[in-house]
Each structure stands twice: as C-alpha cells, then as structure tokens.
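A reminder from the course coordinator: this example appears on the midterm review sheet, so study it carefully.

Given structure:
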C-alpha cells in the first residue's frame, strides 16, 4: 500500500513516500529540476525526468531544498551534517557540520525566498528534554550567521497523514 504525502510550496513540491521498501523516500521538484533522495544517494533529473547526475555513499540523507536561483541544492542528513552541491552536476560538494552538540533528526530545512539564507532546524538534548534551534546560514560560502532557540521546527509529516 502506498503512503505518500505531498507539500506544495510557492515554487516547489516536496513529496515524502512512506511506502514500505520505497527506493526514493523524498523528492523535491522545482526550478526545472527533480531531486530524489534515498538515504544513501542523491539523484538530479531535469524537468522531463531525464537523469542528469547522481552521487552515492551517504548515510541517512533524507530531505533537500533547491536554492531559488537553481544553482545549488541543499541536502540534510539525519545527524550532524548537511551537504550543498552545485546543480545540475552535483559538483563542488561541501559537507557542513551543525554547531557543536546539535543534530537534525526527522526534520527538513529551507532556503529563504531570495536564496540568500538557508535555515536548518536542529536540536540538542538539554537537562531532561530536547531544546530546538533554527540555524541560519548565508549562502555565499555557508557561514553560520546565527542560532535562535525556537519552539517550532519543520518536522517530517507523519505517515498517518499520508494518502494510502
């Protein structure tokens, strides 16, 4: 039985596929590209679905966003890092580590509408529970600009909310 949840945003569509043993858990379509993530790989396709490039060898790479100028894609892993690649060939891959003690589990980040900022949700275990933060990066060289404590993050939608 398929369990798919679709989130429509201004310039993109994000799809979470909770179908048992699916090959592509997360897809983002927008700005002329389709980006597919399976946990261990990232695949870039053009608007017609033709494969342009791919990279393998990742652990828990599950969500992504395309920068509004369509020059880069940000991919977030479950853990302490995120990756930024140039489009369409996934060149110049960079691995960026979240601030000390923070991790990202079952969350997804977003570019600002103008593409000058990247917002990455993170959490850190406090005294008896998790504290939640939103890390803000500038997108010229992905330097951390600030970390704000928050009560709300961008969690993955629940499989119970999916069609199927």
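Designed residues:
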């Amino acid at each position: 039985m398929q369990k798919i949840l679709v989130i429509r945003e201004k310039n993109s569509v994000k799809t979470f596929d909770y179908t048992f043993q699916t090959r592509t858990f997360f897809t983002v379509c927008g700005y002329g590209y389709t980006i597919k993530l399976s946990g261990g790989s990232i695949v870039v396709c053009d608007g017609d679905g033709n494969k342009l490039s791919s990279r393998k060898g990742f652990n828990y790479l599950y969500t992504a966003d395309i920068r509004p100028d369509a020059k880069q894609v940000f991919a977030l892993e479950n853990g302490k890092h995120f990756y930024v690649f140039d489009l369409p060939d996934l060149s110049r891959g960079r691995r960026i580590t979240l601030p000390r003690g923070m991790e990202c589990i079952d969350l997804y980040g977003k570019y600002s509408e103008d593409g000058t900022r990247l917002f990455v949700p993170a959490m850190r275990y406090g005294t008896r529970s998790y504290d939640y933060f939103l890390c803000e990066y500038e997108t010229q060289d992905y330097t951390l600009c600030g970390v704000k404590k928050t009560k709300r993050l961008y969690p993955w939608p629940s499989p119970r909310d999916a069609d199927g």
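Residues 4-156 form a domain with the Methylamine Dehydrogenase; Chain H fold (CATH 2.130.10.10). The mean pLDDT is 89.
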